[in-house]
Write a structure and sequence with these properties.
By secondary structure, the chain is mainly beta. It has one domain (12-163): Hypothetical Protein Pfu-838710-001 (Beta Barrel). Helix content is 9%, strand content 40%. It has helices spanning 79-88, 153-158, and strands at residues 12-20, 33-41, 46-53, 56-63, 69-77, 95-104, 107-114, 122-127, 141-144. An eight-stranded antiparallel barrel has the order 1-5-4-3-2-6-7-8. Strand 6 (95-104) and strand 7 form a beta hairpin. It starts with 11 loop residues before the first strand and ends in a 21-residue tail after the last helix.
């Protein structure tokens, strides 16, 4: 979801991502949707993701990130096909998370509480109509990690949060790659 108002990006995703401050936000019981996702291609030029979100499934193709924007194409697929691809074609570990939606200051924020190998990681992201759209940060949002590739879901497969073995603070000289 982009925000509370209608807007169609014509295959462009513009997204900012933030850590959620520990203890500052609590999920509403039963409100989240379980997501299971894996990647058929992790090539930074063309990420191909398979996702089951609740009782729906999607294949998504994303291009290289430029700033906070990139091409994105998403199509519904049968849940049974997605389950087979996740179990038999996507390298593990899969990304498992519960997603919550939280409106704030006219935008719809998505808060992901990760499970499995990425347990302990909680991220908030917001999709925007333009890269320069101003946002009001919710009080539960911490440091921005939009350009830290460790927090890109596609990278959490190869380097899960639970294996980092150190604080999730991004290094200052980290090279930017696709998310």
């Amino acid at each position: 979801m982009i925000g509370l108002s209608e807007w169609s990006p014509m295959a462009t995703e513009i997204e900012r991502k933030f850590l959620v401050s520990p203890g500052a936000w609590q999920p509403h019981p039963g409100a989240g949707t379980l997501h299971r996702q894996g990647y058929l291609s992790g090539d930074p030029e063309r990420i191909v993701r398979i996702r089951i979100a609740g009782d729906e499934a999607f294949v998504t193709v994303k291009g290289r990130t430029h700033g906070i924007s990139r091409l994105e194409f998403e199509y519904p697929i049968p849940v049974s096909d997605a389950a087979t691809m996740l179990d038999q074609l996507c390298p593990g570990p899969l990304v498992e998370k519960r997603r919550y939606e939280q409106p704030y200051a006219g935008l719809l924020w998505e808060i992901d509480v990760f499970e499995g190998d990425n347990a302990g990681l909680v991220l908030a992201e917001v999709e925007l109509p333009t890269p320069t759209t101003p946002i009001v940060l919710p009080p539960w949002v911490g440091r921005e990690v939009s350009n830290d590739p460790r927090y890109f879901n596609s990278n959490l497969v190869a380097q899960p949060f639970g294996r980092w073995g150190r604080s999730p603070a991004p290094p200052q000289d980290r090279a930017k790659t696709d998310r």
